[in-house]
């Protein structure tokens, strides 16, 4: 597994990490035994960056990861997130970037993860009621206390990145980035990351599974799968996006790789660290194999011809969730 330096603060991670969210929430049924086996296999394959959050469950995903890493914590770079408030019984309250909540949230995460530190601590979403300087200042204090190694942000605008970075060095920004979602290329985020030496962690690098080529109908999803409310998976949007995936599949077949591998290799080629999510070993192994796929100039041209920036149909979230992005 290729290792990459994430940002300019000294954090080294595997080029491809593992998004653990679906093991506990949002993507239909779960299977703890298979999830634990998938994390185990990821470590065997050299995947070091394991991504979770308080809100995945809530708490359940952190607890799962803590169980998986018991006795071998040093083998993983653990990333988790704060800023979406829950009471200790799991009741959702809303955004909360106040320093006192950041401290409380981290201590709770450490208990659930069974560790004394988090390697990469993200602000999951910006609290519009709290200056980013106050929130990141509190996160910086946690670094000084030894409870956090590096600070990150998720789904933030360029000016927020700059303000945060001026308070405490930001190691990584996590945002959605894939052949289906390239907004950061023209909204200033990617340019800001390059300028400031901040790493990019791409979540949903397979377009929430669309770019795997395995989804053929909205009926493929379980009743409790949140993609049933995702605009890109509905009506005419679904049909248009599926036509793009068919073209990606065609290019992948010529290259003798899967559509997932081609899509992931493209993200990696852009310099990002990708964290495709899966809860099954067979998909993990397919995804990890993408790190050995070379993307040539000819490949880039062919991909751009069928999946140019802006080709995707539909917003990436339902309206109520879109409001929380780009804080």
From TrEMBL:
Q: Which UniProt keywords apply?
A: Oxidoreductase
InterPro entries named among the record's database cross-references: Aldo-Keto_reductase, NAD(P)_OxRdtase_dom_sf, NADP_OxRdtase_dom
What's its top-level EC category?
Answer: oxidoreductase
Q: Which residues form a coiled coil?
A: none
- For this protein, the Enzyme Commission number is 1.1.1.-
A single GO molecular function, which one? oxidoreductase activity
Q: Has the keyword tRNA processing been applied to this entry?
A: no
Residue ranges constituting the NADP-dependent oxidoreductase domain according to the UniProt record: 18-306
Q: What is this protein called?
A: General stress protein 69
């Amino acid at each position: 597994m290729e290792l990459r330096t994430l940002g300019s603060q000294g954090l080294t991670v595997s080029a491809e990490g593992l998004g653990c969210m679906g093991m506990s929430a949002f993507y239909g049924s779960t299977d703890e035994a298979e999830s634990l086996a998938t994390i185990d296999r990821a470590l065997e394959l050299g995947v070091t960056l394991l991504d979770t959050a308080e809100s995945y469950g809530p708490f359940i995903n952190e607890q799962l990861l803590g169980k998986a890493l018991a006795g071998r914590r040093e083998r993983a770079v653990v990333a988790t997130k704060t800023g979406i408030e829950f009471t200790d019984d799991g009741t959702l309250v809303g955004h909360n970037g106040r320093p006192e909540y950041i401290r409380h949230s981290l201590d709770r995460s450490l208990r659930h993860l069974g560790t004394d530190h988090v390697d990469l601590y993200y602000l999951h979403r910006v609290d519009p009621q709290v200056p980013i300087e106050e929130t990141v200042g509190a996160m910086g204090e946690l670094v000084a206390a030894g409870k956090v190694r590096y600070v990150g942000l998720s789904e933030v605008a360029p000016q927020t990145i700059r303000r945060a970075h001026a308070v405490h060095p930001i190691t990584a920004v996590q945002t959605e980035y894939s052949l289906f979602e390239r907004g950061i290329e023209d909204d200033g985020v990617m340019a800001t990351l390059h300028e400031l030496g901040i790493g990019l962690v791409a979540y949903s690098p397979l377009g929430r599974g669309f770019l795997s080529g395995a989804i053929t109908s909205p009926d493929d999803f379980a009743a409790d799968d949140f993609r049933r409310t995702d605009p890109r998976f509905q009506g005419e949007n679904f049909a248009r996006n599926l036509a793009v995936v068919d073209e990606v599949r065609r290019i992948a077949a010529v290259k003798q790789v899967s559509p997932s591998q081609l899509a992931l290799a493209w993200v990696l080629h852009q310099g990002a660290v990708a964290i495709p999510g899966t809860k099954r070993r067979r998909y993990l192994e397919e995804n990890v194999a993408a790190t050995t796929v070379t993307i040539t100039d000819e490949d880039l041209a062919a991909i751009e011809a069928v999946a140019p920036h802006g080709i995707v149909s539909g917003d990436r979230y339902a309206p109520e969730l879109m409001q929380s992005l780009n804080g």
